[in-house]
Design brief:
4-stranded antiparallel beta sheet; alpha+beta
Length: 67
């Protein structure tokens, strides 16, 4: 199991969190997504994680990855 952590900006509410979780959760290989709205931290777990695909999913949800 792999774990990747991202810092995401632009999230301001629970709907934002839901959008990120939904988009990232659809990336092949992702088995779990945890989002901390206050810090912008997004933890992604799975067997084989595609960093570029996860970053693209966050962008598709309407947010920016800063780290």
């Amino acid at each position: 199991m792999s774990l990747s952590t991202y810092t995401v900006t632009g999230m301001t509410c629970g709907h934002c969190v839901s959008s990120v979780k939904e988009e990232v959760g659809e990336v092949p290989g992702v088995t779990g997504v945890e989002v901390d709205l206050a810090t912008g931290r997004v933890d992604v777990s799975g067997e084989t994680l595609d960093d570029a695909a996860i970053r693209a999913a966050i962008k598709d949800a309407g947010y920016q990855v800063t780290a």
